[in-house]
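lol forgot to send this yesterday, sorry. struct tokens for the thing we talked abt
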């Protein structure tokens, strides 16, 4: 059995001036969270209510990196339009024999800027700026193997190799 322990290190890349390059001075990155829309079911034969999730009604998803000091590349990411990001991180994994190894994680994100907080200016202190991008596309890999892909604009929802979007689109 393998036990994932913690993130050892990470790096955020962004497409800036048509080139993918490391985004410097990052402190943290809040990755997108999934929240499926629900419909309340109640009526005869049901005791109480049941919230039924709708996998094709994914709520707003955001990507929010924070930075210690603002740089020119950060400012370019507040331009209107779609921005491409890639977050890569290494996780420490312990197996049942006591051996450890690093496991590679990667998330590809496309989004539109919603919020851009440049932080504060204070003597001998970081600025603590942050941004928030509305995620329209997200794809996640562990050790190069795709775990999921969400493409909101093209009706694609792939989880563990099953394309639920195709199932829906084939019925329509």
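and heres what i got for the seq, position by position
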């Amino acid at each position: 059995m393998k036990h994932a322990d913690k993130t050892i290190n990470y790096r955020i890349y962004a497409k800036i001036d048509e080139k993918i390059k490391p985004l410097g001075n990052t402190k943290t990155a809040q990755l997108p969270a999934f929240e499926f829309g629900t419909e309340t079911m109640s009526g005869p034969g049901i005791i109480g209510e049941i919230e039924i999730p709708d996998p094709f009604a994914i709520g707003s998803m955001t990507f929010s990196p924070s930075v210690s000091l603002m740089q020119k590349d950060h400012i370019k990411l507040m331009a209107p339009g779609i921005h491409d990001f890639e977050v890569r991180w290494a996780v420490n994994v312990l197996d049942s024999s006591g051996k450890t190894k690093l496991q590679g994680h990667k998330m590809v994100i496309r989004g539109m800027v919603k919020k851009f907080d440049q932080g504060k200016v204070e003597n001998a202190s970081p600025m603590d700026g942050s941004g928030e991008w509305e995620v329209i596309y997200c794809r996640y890999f562990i050790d190069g193997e795709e775990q999921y892909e969400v493409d909101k604009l093209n009706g694609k929802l792939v989880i563990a190799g099953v394309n639920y979007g195709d199932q829906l689109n084939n019925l329509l």
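The chain has two helices and twelve strands. anyway ping me if u want another try
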